[in-house]
Amino acid sequence: MSRQSCYPSDPTDNEWALVEQLLPPDGGGGRPEKHPRRNIVDAVLYVVRTGCAWRQSPADFPPWQTVYWYFVR
Length: 73
Fold this sequence. Notes:
By secondary structure, the chain is mainly α. It has helices at residues 13-22, 37-50, 64-72.
């Protein structure tokens, strides 16, 4: 399920193309990713830009625990 880009912190398609190249490849074995990487990056950028707490990220992002796990990783 993909979400609509609706926050000023969301990267454009051109910006996403640049960022996507910098991410490590998916695990390639095991369970497929449940949330698209773009949604994860959008959520991280939202929290970093707004300064809100992880638990206060909007509901249209993946669960905050998932986003935080990727951020720490």
